[in-house]
């Protein structure tokens, strides 16, 4: 009997992505793996059931009863764990941080859970790195949201009514999301700057045609990681940033750490000196936000400055986000399936470090 890789319709609020796309279903089928989906699983992502030529469909209970591997985008409803057979493998963004009850429920059912957000950030893991693929979507959408909500045009426009100067856009954080936001701002014609505490990101920012903002403080550390700033350095950095924000039209912040509160970079005092009509889009809102005034999931105003705290941005571009996510899942499954059978190699650090439950125990 071939193993069955399954997926349900996502149930998290506002979630429109799907863990298995028609493309990935075809690849799995070619390897002799059966694909089983809940009816309508891909509808909200733009993949109706008819587009899956290589998958079977059933209701949720039948899917769970037959799954050897359950792929998910976000953790399913807690009722799902008891409906899976013992020893089923679960692969997805399981959000293990602070989720002891969820992991205990999975362990009691003897499920083997792999949280893809725990994958080591190595070269070999890039093809299955869901944090990077989904951050690219989030950075792109964050800048589109900024352009839509700003009271100004992004590009310079020369019209019969006069010349409109381009918006000044600053992106804080030059990770995947930040670089995608910078690239999108440049495509939209804004005068774009990027900032990161890691000076080695300057080359990446400038390669996108943006200016690297130098605040006169370097957090260069060993091994490519930023070191912690001293109190004096942090104060100097904060003052330089506050001075610079006075001339910024749009600020997009992207500094997020999975499982930890987002670092507070933009203080209330900084917002107070920004121009009326300025806009902040806080991409780190799910972790509390980089701005002290961010309200996750809400729009607020302070002294004429609008602050947006959007949540789950990748779900807003579900078709392409799902395509990238499903490819990540497929590449990870190649580590778990050997000769058509489930045989995860726990000597492989990618397998071992992403495993959160195994043999009735929680490992997160």
TrEMBL record:
It comes from the Bacteria. One of its GO terms (molecular function) is NADP binding. It is an enzyme of class 7 (translocase). The keyword Chloroplast does not apply. Residues 6-138 form the Alanine dehydrogenase/pyridine nucleotide transhydrogenase N-terminal domain. Its EC number is 7.1.1.1. One of its GO terms (biological process) is NADPH regeneration. SMART domains: AlaDh_PNT_C, AlaDh_PNT_N. Keywords: NAD, NADP, Nucleotide-binding, Translocase. SUPFAM superfamilies: Formate/glycerate dehydrogenase catalytic domain-like, NAD(P)-binding Rossmann-fold domains. One of its GO terms (cellular component) is plasma membrane. InterPro entries: AlaDH/PNT_N, AlaDH/PNT_NAD(H)-bd, NAD(P)-bd_dom_sf. The transhydrogenation between NADH and NADP is coupled to respiration and ATP hydrolysis and functions as a proton pump across the membrane. This is proton-translocating NAD(P)(+) transhydrogenase.
